[in-house]
Amino acid sequence: MEEKTGLHEREFLETRRFTFSDEIEIETCGSVNMANLVSGKKMQIEAIDDAFDPHIIHYAETFIIPATLSRVKLKCLDDACIVIKAHVR
Questions:
Q1: Which residues lie closer than 8 Å to 31 by C-beta, 6 or more apart?
Q2: Is the separation of the CB atoms in 84 and 16 below 8 Å?
Q3: What are the phi and psi torsion angles at 41 (to 5°)?
Q4: Residue-level pLDDT at 9
Q5: For residue 6, what are the CA distances in angstroms to 28, 29, 36?
Q6: What is the CATH number of the domain that holds 23?
Q7: Running DSSP on this structure, what letter comes out for residue 79?
Q8: What is the pLDDT of residues 11-67, one digit of tens each?
Q9: Furthest-apart CA pair in the chain: how many Å?
């Protein structure tokens, strides 16, 4: 499930919360993205185009998704994961 987190539309940042229990694909919106695993023990991030090897993210870790990637895949390795993602509009 994807939710907007409520920043005013005039703010220069866009924030989203993703709740998932298996795997999802998310878009970078043509901007560098900063994300944090806020719930769940661990997850895996993969580049759709194999630009980098899959990487394990643990609870409370922050990770950067480069603007050069249009989409990434997030796989929950726990019962449920919540990720907060922010990018410049």
A1: 67, 87, 88, 89
A2: yes
A3: -75, -40
A4: 75
A5: 18, 18, 17
A6: 2.60.120.10
A7: S
A8: 778 899 999 999 999 999 899 999 999 999 999 999 998 889 999 999 999 999 999
A9: 36
Query: CA dihedral defined by 52, 85, 20, 43, rounded to 10 degrees?
Result: 40
Domain count of the fold of the chain: 1
Locate tokens 């390795």: which residue?
Answer: 77
Strands 33-39 and 81-88: antiparallel
For residue 83, give every residue at least 6 positions away whose Cβ sits within 8 Å of its Cβ, in sequence order, or none: 17, 18, 20, 35, 36, 37, 38, 43, 74
Strands 23-27 and 55-58: unpaired
